[in-house]
Design brief:
By secondary structure, the first copy, chain A, is mainly alpha-helical. Chain A has one domain (2-409): Farnesyl Diphosphate Synthase (Orthogonal Bundle). Helix content of chain A is 58%, strand content 1%. A two-stranded antiparallel sheet of chain A has the order 1-2. The termini of chain A are close together. Mean pLDDT of chain A is 72; it is low at 1-80, 189-195 and 354-360. Chains A and B meet through helix 6, helix 8 and helix 9 of A and helix 4, helix 6, helix 8 and helix 9 of B. Chain A: Keywords: Isoprene biosynthesis, Magnesium, Metal-binding, Mitochondrion, Transferase. Chain A: GO terms for molecular function: metal ion binding; prenyltransferase activity. Chain A: This is Hexaprenyl-diphosphate synthase. Chain A: Its main location: mitochondrion. Chain A: It holds the Pfam family polyprenyl_synt.
Chain lengths: 412, 418
């Protein structure tokens, strides 16, 4: 689950509009630093305005692994680049989406609606990472405004496009939740997202049916966009989710120890959804193939980085030591990147893969390095997007870049 | 399950022969000169040989008729399934290639019901291919012949694609239904969930759905895409309706027909309409195609309900009774509750106790439930037939034959005994 922990910033004091940015942090296991208006701030790392021309403050709230620390970026260029909190940037829009999704999900049959809604209820829905990325991407890809068209026309077009892009975000969530519902049935997991999962609470059959329900509504919404290329993309996503899950179920022992196989599986299970829906956003916006591919690359690398850190956190949790995480992957016999790296150092580990590992010190680092590499590929994709002077667009792009940092520095 | 029993015919003078696959001992038909059927009519009298063979025990009220037509414009009965048999095997091959997966276990699961011998009767693709031909627009004489041929082939391929998509969606829904019903068998073999587990069955169903949509996208027709997306929605809705009925709904004929539309008829009706749309037909004609599919599907299911009670015999309780044992209340029972309100009480109690099943059967036999269901089925069958008759005139022999085949299906659907 994605949380923006360990990061809270104040916007620059020089920022004329007086906005301030507050990161909503997850239920604090450790106490986050609450930032209010700049005048109340007490962080020791405060730098004087006079020196920098801005205050950029970071706070640490997590114990990071020694080789990966938070970096304090002190930007001193005159074109000050504000850091943004990606999640709050789209918070309002997200709640509109959540409402729309909830009402779309209300079927004629109440029993099933509550089953599907189960996962959309606040508090269970996680950070809504995927829709956040997609909405930011939508803004980031806004084409420069055509000046000759009347403003009303532009507004109508933009809001119609925006609605369609929001629809992609909704479809993506439905597909994602449907796959979770079906995975839960299959894995006999008794918790998912911290509370009793659907199949435990309501029975396997209803879980299968609820997943089917979401998938079918996603199909209808998809068809309603009247864009067959987008239909192809998201159909492929469903195929990939199934492929990834099957790969995970049916690995041979050789494949289990193969980093290549693991990355392919990870692409299918995690990154494909984000990458292809980012691309779909771009296509709906009428972007070129080049730009659509950049969006794809962003989503793909962000997703991979996200999963790799997920793997690390499963071992480390919020502490610096190994074995303090939930260890649920390894307990389910799922071999992830850190183990795979460890196997390269300790071939004997291959034989005792189920007993976990103890001595290896570098695996965590190597996995984080790989995650960082993907995160910077994602960031590069955003930087490669065509120039756009618009302030709102630029802010969304900064938010997307910010996400690539958050994904790898999170501790939960 | 649909089978064309009791029907085998010889084709007309061109010397083609038509062989229907039958479950009971079929009469093997070879070329006319070797024929030995006692019903043989001399060529001089008829101008052609048209022979029928019985192979099934039909209900007394429904018998195969030996049609000795003596009009000069001979209207030949057609066996719908054999008309499209060759094309169906092309489709089967293509379907197998469409569901190939890289991961071995997924591949086995996905292709499970597309293998030779277990494709089922392929009722839906048969209807769709016949509909495609039946809706052929008259040939434009000014266009060059090669252009027409190329266009027709391309259109035909696209319509075949609809048939393939329909089969994928259909099988996907079967896979999930079997998981939901804990079914052991399907199409005469172990169900996929029984053989490979619920997990793989659910995943394979999703996989087939995704492949269906990929194929759908390739047609680049957004209206057709919407139609088939709607079908998927209806299939799930129908299943939900079946699993979550209130007691009022369970005794409601209206609810039952709506559920039946969702579960059975929607797929056929909307895919027939899709075939019409691809052919560039008008909204009116597309709706006729829709109506045909819808009424055919409803008739089919109603007879299915009857057969679950009667099986191949005339008496009740000789069918598999699987519906009622699964607590699924179908049309015959619903009609019976109208005559015997006390049956309603039993229905609400459910059918876990076999004593309730027995009592329900008693009431059913006293009622006209079976009869009324058959009548309703016949009504829908003739609505389907009427839709075909309402299609725009087309002189072409091939088109006419397909239309006759479609009409023939409306008869077969209600006279079948299995």
């Amino acid at each position: 689950m994605m949380r923006a922990r360990g990061l809270a910033r104040l916007a620059r004091s020089g920022y004329a509009r007086g906005q301030w940015v507050y990161s909503s942090l997850g239920s604090g296991e450790s106490a986050p630093l609450l930032l209010e208006h700049s005048s109340h701030f007490r962080n020791p790392l405060q730098s004087s305005r006079e020196v920098l021309g801005c205050r950029v403050i970071y706070s640490w709230v997590s114990n990071a692994i020694s080789t990966v620390g938070q970096q304090v970026q002190l930007q001193s260029s005159s074109a000050v680049e504000e850091q943004v909190d990606p999640f709050s940037l789209v918070a309002d829009e997200l709640s509109i989406l959540a409402d729309r999704l909830r009402s779309m999900v209300v079927a004629e049959v109440p029993k099933l609606a509550s089953a599907a809604e189960y996962f959309f209820k606040l508090g269970v829905e996680g950070k809504r990472f995927r829709p956040t990325v997609l909405l930011l991407m939508a803004t980031a890809l806004d084409l420069p405004i055509q000046r000759q068209i009347s403003e009303a026309a532009v507004n109508t077009l933009s809001s119609e496009l925006r609605t369609r892009q929001q629809c992609i975000a909704e479809i993506t969530e439905m597909i994602h939740v449907a796959s979770l519902l079906h995975d839960d049935v299959l894995d006999d997991a008794d918790t998912r997202r911290g509370i009793g999962s659907l199949n435990y609470v309501m029975g396997n059959k209803l879980a299968v049916l609820a997943g089917d329900f979401l998938l079918s509504r996603a199909c209808v919404a998809l068809a309603s966009l009247k864009n067959t290329e987008v239909v192809s993309l998201l159909a492929k996503v469903v195929e990939h989710l199934v492929t990834g899950e099957t790969m995970q179920m049916t690995t041979t022992s050789d494949q289990r120890c193969s980093m290549e196989y693991y990355m392919e599986k990870t692409y299918y299970k995690t990154a494909s959804l984000i990458s292809n829906s980012c691309k779909a956003i771009a296509l709906l916006a009428g972007q070129t193939a080049d730009v659509s591919n950049l969006a794809f690359e962003y989503g793909k690398n962000l997703g991979l980085a996200f999963q790799l850190i997920d793997d690390v956190l499963d071992f480390t949790g919020t502490s610096t030591s190994l074995g303090k995480g939930s260890l649920s992957d390894i307990r389910h016999g799922i071999v992830t990147a850190p183990i795979l790296f460890a196997i390269e150092e300790f071939p004997e580990l291959r034989l005792i893969v189920n007993q976990g590992f103890e001595k290896s010190s570098n695996v965590d680092r190597r996995t984080r390095e790989l995650a960082a590499k993907h995160a910077s590929l994602a960031s590069a994709a955003i930087d490669a997007l065509p120039e756009n002077e618009d302030e709102v667009v630029q802010r969304s792009r900064r938010a997307l870049v910010e996400l690539t940092h958050l994904v790898i520095t999170r501790t939960k």
